[in-house]
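We emphasize that the prediction below concerns an isolated chain of 363 residues; any contacts that depend on oligomerization or on bound cofactors are therefore not represented. The input was used exactly as deposited, without trimming of termini.
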Amino acid sequence: MPGTSSENTRVEEFLDKKGRCPVVYLNCPPNEPEACQKDSGFFFSAIRLSPCTKACRFSRVGHADRDYMKPGYEPPRPPQGPGYGRPPGAFDGAPVTRWLFVSNIAVFFLNILLTSEGQIPPLTLWGYFSVDQGFYHLQIWRVLTFQFLHADIGHLLSNMIGIYFFAPHLERWMSSRIFTFYYLLCGIAGVLFYTFLALFTNLFGEYGTINPMVGASAGIFGILAAFYFIAPNARVLLFFVIPMKMRTLGIIFFAYEVLNIIGRGGNYGGSVGHLGGALLGILIMKNSTAKKLLTSLAAIGTGTSTKGHSKGKFKEAQIVRESNRSPIEITEEVNRILDKISEEGIQSLTPKERETLDRSRKN
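Result of the prediction step, given as a C-alpha cell string:
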C-alpha cells in the first residue's frame, strides 16, 4: 500500500473544478484523487469544508498515519439530540413551514367534513376574501383566513408543492419569525392589489367586488420572488421534468401571470393576487427600507433592538443581523455563498460574504 509511514506522506495543493475545496481524499495515489475514489478501493473520506483562499490539501496518508491506528485512539461519539440518527427532513429547522403545510391540508379536509350536500363549505363561507366582505364590511380577519382555504384538491396540491419545496429554505434563511410575517404580508398584498384594481379600474366588471378569493398562492409567489433574488442560479425542475435556473422560472411565472391578466384568461383575478404577492416580495428583497420595516415588525414583542439598522444599509444577502441568527441559519448562508462560488467563482464574493466564510471557518 503506498505511503505506509509519515515519511512518505505527501501534501499537494489543488483546487477542485469549481474553484473551492470541498473534498479531502486519504490514501490516494499521487495526483489521482478521482482514480482513488472510483477504482482503488482504498479508504477515503469526503467532507465539505469551508472554502480556502488558495487551495485544498491533497494528502497521501499511509495506514500507520491514520488516527484510529494510533495508541490511545477513541472513536468519536455520534452526535446526540433531536434530529440525529435519522435522515434530514424537509421541515428541519423550519417549524413555521411545517405548520403552514399541515394546517392548510387539515383545513381543507375539515371543510369537506363540515359541508352538507349542496351547501357552501362553512369555513370557506366564513373565511374567503372579497372586496365587499373584507373592505366594505370591514371583516378584516379575511385577509388572513383566505390564505388557508382552497377551492379543490388540485388547488391545494399545487400550493402545497410550492410550500414544500421552497418555503423551508427561505424560512431558514430569514428566520422563522421574519418568514412568518413575510409570507402572510405577501398574501395580504395579493388581496390588496386585487381590491385596488377592483375599485379603481373596470378590469373585473360589475362582479369584481363580490368575487371570492381563496388560496395560499399570493404568499407562495412572494416566496418565489425572494428565491429569484437569493438563489437566482439554483437549478429547479419545472413540472418535475424541465431543468432550468430559478431566475428563468421566476421570469416564466411572472410573464404568464401578466399575460393572463391582459388576455383576461382563466382565473385572471387569481393572477392579480399572485402578482400582488410577488410585487411585495420584490419590494422587500430590493429595498433596504422595506427590509428594515419587516425586521422591525417581526421584532415586536421579542425585546430585540433594530436600532443598529437605522442608519445602515441592509446587505443583499442578509435580512436579520448575524448576531441574532441561529446555527442553522448561518449554515444556510454559508451554503448559499458556496453555491455562489460554484457558479461565479470566489472573486464574485462581497466583503461581507468573505467575512461570513472566515467567521464560519474559525468556528
